[in-house]
Amino acid sequence: MPDGAIRPSGPIRELVIVGGGTAGWMTAAALSRFLEHGYRIRLVESDAIGTIGVGEATIPQIRLFNAGLGIDEDDFLRATQGTIKLGIEFEGWQAPGTRYMHAFGPVGRDLGLLPFHHYWLRGRQLGVADALGAYSLNAAAARGGRFRRGDTQTQGLPGLTHAYHFDAGLYAAYLRRYAEARGTLRTEGRITAVERDGDSGDITGVRLENGDCITGQLFIDCSGFRGLLIEETLHAGYEDWSQWLACDRAMAVPCASAADFTPYTRATARPAGWQWRIPLQHRTGNGHVYSSADMSDDEAAATLLANLDGEALADPRPLRFTAGRRRSAWVRNVVAIGLSSGFLEPLESTSIHLIQSGIARLLAFLPGDAIEASAVAEFNRQSAWELETIRDFIILHYKATARVDTAFWRRRRDMAIPASLAERMALFAATGRIRRDHDELFTEVAWLQVLVGQGVVPGAGHPLAGLLGDDDIAGFLASLKAAIDREVAGLPSHRDFIRQNCAAAATGA
Ligand SMILES: Cc1cc2nc3c(=O)[nH]c(=O)nc-3n(C[C@H](O)[C@H](O)[C@H](O)COP(=O)(O)OP(=O)(O)OC[C@H]3O[C@@H](n4cnc5c(N)ncnc54)[C@H](O)[C@@H]3O)c2cc1C
Q1: Which of 16, 41, 77, 85 is catalytic?
Q2: For position 6, what pLDDT does the model report?
C-alpha cells in the first residue's frame, strides 16, 4: 500500500450522492457527464425533507459549467424562467443614498503597463473623470436594461459578460432530467441511519426509513446545512465566521414582477442587514438577510414586505445559518459539496459557484484504487483557501462603510477584520495597487469596483499614469465613455432579448 493511503479498496467506482438540492443535482449531472463509463452513480433525496429552495443569482462561471454539460443557453433559460445578470447593484452600502455597481467584465481599457484604474485615479485628480461605472460596458448596459450576446459593434470594446438569474427548483429539476438520462439512479427516501465499516470507520451505506440500504465506496454529502455525513456522522467540525459576518437569518419571498425588468441583482442595505431583489421571467425573488441580535423576525419580515416591487406571492419563509466553513470538506470517504461544506451569505452570489468548483476539485482529485491522505489534505487546503478569499471580499462590503445610522452598521465599521483583508485595503488606500492572490475567484476589477464603491479611493495611483498629458487623460476617458454610451444605445432591451430568444411558456416576459 503506498504511503498515506487510507485504505486499500480496489477501484472506487460506486459513488453515492446524498441530497437532491442544487448541489446534489449539479454533482449528479457533472459526474454522469464526466464519469460516463464504468461508474455507478446513485442519488438519494427526500421529498419530505425538501431543499433550501433559494439560490437564484449566479456569477459568469456558471456558463462554463453548463457549457461543460453541453447545455444550450436558450433551452436552459426557457426551462428555468431565467434572465440575464450583468452585475450587482449595491444600494446604500457606503452610506444611505449611495449606489454603485459591481459589474462583471472589464472596467475601462488598460494602457501600456498600467491597469485602467490608475488613469481613472489621475483623471479624478484632474477633475475630468466620471464615476468608475461609466467606464464599464456591463454597468452601463445593466442600468440601461439592455443586453445582447456576442461581440460589440464598437471596435476595441469587449462584449458583455453575463451570468443568470433562475429559479433554483427548476434548475435542479432540469439537471435531474439530464443526470437520469445519463444513468444516475435516483432513490427517494429519508435516510435514518448511516452504516460504517467496523474496522476503518468509513461509511459503507445509508439506510432509508423503509429499511433499504444504498451502499457505495465514495459518498458526496449534499445534504444541506446539517451535513448528514460530514458533520452528524464524521464530526468534521465547523469554523464559525460570525464575528465578521453577523447576519444569521433570512426571510425569502417571491413577488409579482415589476415593470422594469433589470438585468442585474440588487442588494439594498437595511438597518440590520440587506435585501436582495432577483428578477426572473415569471416573478421576482426577494429576501432580507439580517442579524437576529439586531432585529426580530417580525421586524425583518415587515421590512421585506414593505419593500417589494409587486404583490407578495407567498408568506415570507424564514431561514437560519451561520457563516463559516466545515473544518474539512473531505473526511474519510465523504466529500461535502454545497451547504454541507460551509456558507457565506449570498451578497456576491457565490454559493452555486462554490458547488461548481467543489465538483471540479472532486473530479481533479478523484481517487483511483484508494483514497490517498495527501490528496485529501490538498483538497481540503484548496477548499479552505477558496472560501477564505471569498469571505474577505464579502467582509469588505461591511467594513468599508460610512453608515452610522444603526448599532449594526457602527459595529461593522468598527470591527477587527482578518489581517489578509486589512492588508489589501491598506495597500489600495495608500497606493492604488490591488492584491489578488493566485487564481482567487474575484479579479482585480471586482476588488476595484467594491473598494471604490464602498468609498476606499486612493488620492493617487501609479506614478507612470502622470506621464500622460492632462489633455490626453481627459481625451482617453471621454472617448471610452462615449464608445460605451454609443454601444449601449444600440443594444436591444433585456426584455426583448428574452422574448426573442428564450421566453418561458406562459409568461408575459
Ligand atoms: C438565504 C439564502 C439565499 C441564497 N441565495 C443564493 C444566491 O442568490 N446564489 C447562490 O449561488 N446561492 C445562494 N444561496 C445558496 C444556495 O441556496 C445553495 O448553495 C444551494 O441551494 C445548494 O443547497 P444544497 O443542495 O447544498 O442543500 P439543500 O437545498 O438544503 O438540499 C439538501 C438535500 O438533502 C436532502 N436530505 C437532507 N437530509 C436528508 C435525509 N435524512 N434523507 C434524505 N435526504 C436528505 C434534502 O432532501 C435535499 O434534497 C442562498 C442560500 C440562502 C440560505
Answers
A1: 85
A2: 57
Any atom of ligand 1 within 6 Å of the Cβ of 49 = yes
Q: Are 336 and 230 in contact (CB under 8 A)?
A: yes
Of 389, 413, 442, the residue that ends a domain is: 389
Query: Could you tell me if 237 and 330 lie in one domain?
Result: yes
Which residue range forms the structural domain that includes residue 177? 5-82+166-243+323-389
338 CB less than 6 Å from ligand 1?
yes
Is there a catalytic annotation at residue 481? Answer: no
pLDDT of residue 226: 97
Total domains, the chain: 2
In CATH, what number is assigned to the domain containing residue 20? 3.50.50.60
Phi-psi region of 2 (alpha: psi -120 to 50; beta: other; left: phi over 0): beta
- CA 221 – ligand 1 centroid, Å: 11
Q: Same domain, yes or no, for 172 and 311? A: no
Give yes or no: residues 213 and 253 share one domain: no
Tell me the whole-structure pTM to 2 decimals. 0.97
Other Cβ atoms closer than 10 A to 35 = 17
- Output the pLDDT for position 7: 58
Q: Examine the domain organization and report whether 184 and 276 are in the same domain.
A: no
Q: Tell which of 355, 389, 423 closes a domain.
A: 389
d(CA 432, CA 481): 22
- In this structure, what are the phi and psi dihedrals at residue 437, rounded to the nearest 5 degrees? -90, 120
For ligand 1, atom 4, the nearest C-alpha belongs to 55
Give the residue among 237, 253, 338, 337 at the shortest CA–CA distance from 289: 253
Supply the DSSP symbol for 87: E
332 and 376 inside one domain: yes
Residues 336 and 350 in one domain: yes
Q: Out of 16, 17, 22, give the residue to mutate to test ligand 1, the one with the largest number of ligand atoms within 8 Å of its CB.
A: 22
State in Å: Cα 475 to ligand 1 middle: 50
Q: Which residues of the chain are modeled with pLDDT < 50?
A: 1-3, 508-509
Q: Is the CB of 51 under 6 A from ligand 1?
A: yes
- Ligand 1 mean position, distance from CA 282 (Å): 22
